[in-house]
């Protein structure tokens, strides 16, 4: 008998307590969080089975998140300095499953290292894309660029610049909703899975989007953003742990 969906769990700035050993470790550095409001009806068909759009006051969101991945490592082994360190830009959506767990769903993950992209595509069914990328800082301005190589659509691009500002002393409800995410939903061999993560509370800064020329959002199957973003944030980064994936109990899968 199908389970009745639960109310979404509260949004918390700190992760749930976890005693599980790490599956993956890494650091996310120099992050730009750029978000537009989206219609849940546009987002729902793009989510894994057993999940629905996570909404705040009737809206869900599309995120364009650019950063530097640093020293990806397996289990408790030291992170890899070259293959595990590279620029990355994600298009992500916001989801909740029948157990009430809030997460993100990645529609694309452009990264600058071919071997990690190939492994993620083949072994984990993650929508990684190999791209030519850079992250450059000029004072308070950071410019992130990418141009997709493989798989397609070849040439899908992003160039955006954010100017960082003052630290955020008390994030708004929306800022917590968009950044305090303690897991991801994905489909693995036709089964819905939830991969938890934990890290220290985000150190956030106000930011201004001064340049944005991209088509990654439409390449990910979403309508082009209408108007300016509703939220632009910067973070110097956090160390991150991913723990063992879990199949959402009670979630029907094909």
Automatic annotation (TrEMBL):
<feature type="compositionally biased region" description="Pro residues">
    <location>
        <begin position="1"/>
        <end position="19"/>
    </location>
</feature>
<dbReference type="Pfam" id="PF09844">
    <property type="entry name" value="DUF2071"/>
</dbReference>
<protein>
    <recommendedName>
        <fullName>DUF2071 domain-containing protein</fullName>
    </recommendedName>
</protein>
<feature type="region of interest" description="Disordered">
    <location>
        <begin position="1"/>
        <end position="20"/>
    </location>
</feature>
<dbReference type="InterPro" id="IPR018644">
    <property type="entry name" value="DUF2071"/>
</dbReference>
<dbReference type="InterPro" id="IPR023375">
    <property type="entry name" value="ADC_dom_sf"/>
</dbReference>
